[in-house]
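A favour, since you know our structure tokens better than I do. Go ahead and set the record down below.
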Amino acid sequence: METLARKEIVDELKIQWRNLWRERIDDKVKAEGIANNDYAKLFVEKGTVIFATRNFKILNFRDILELNGIVDVDKLIPPNPHVGGWGKFIRTVVATQKPHRRNRRVLQYIDFKKEQQQLKKGGRGWLHY
């Protein structure tokens, strides 16, 4: 029962979070975003600056969940992209692995075939004199 109630709270907070960022007022002169409505569960009032370019701490959904009493925040939302997620894991671990033995043989065969080909125009390429 508790997990269903917690999931409903998180879903409602996600909806309000999306609406906050969609319906914000963008001030082009001051380069900041301002909340258009009151969002009581997100602890944001109408007219609050939610995004600015200089010396500003941006709102964090993880902190808002903790303020609402959600305990297992890490299980509910993915990690911050700056910290790393699946994409960073793939770039750092999976992409840097050496190819399997079979793949190395295929690559060596392809390289061998390319070395044996005759060069066009005696190695001068497509240039015409």
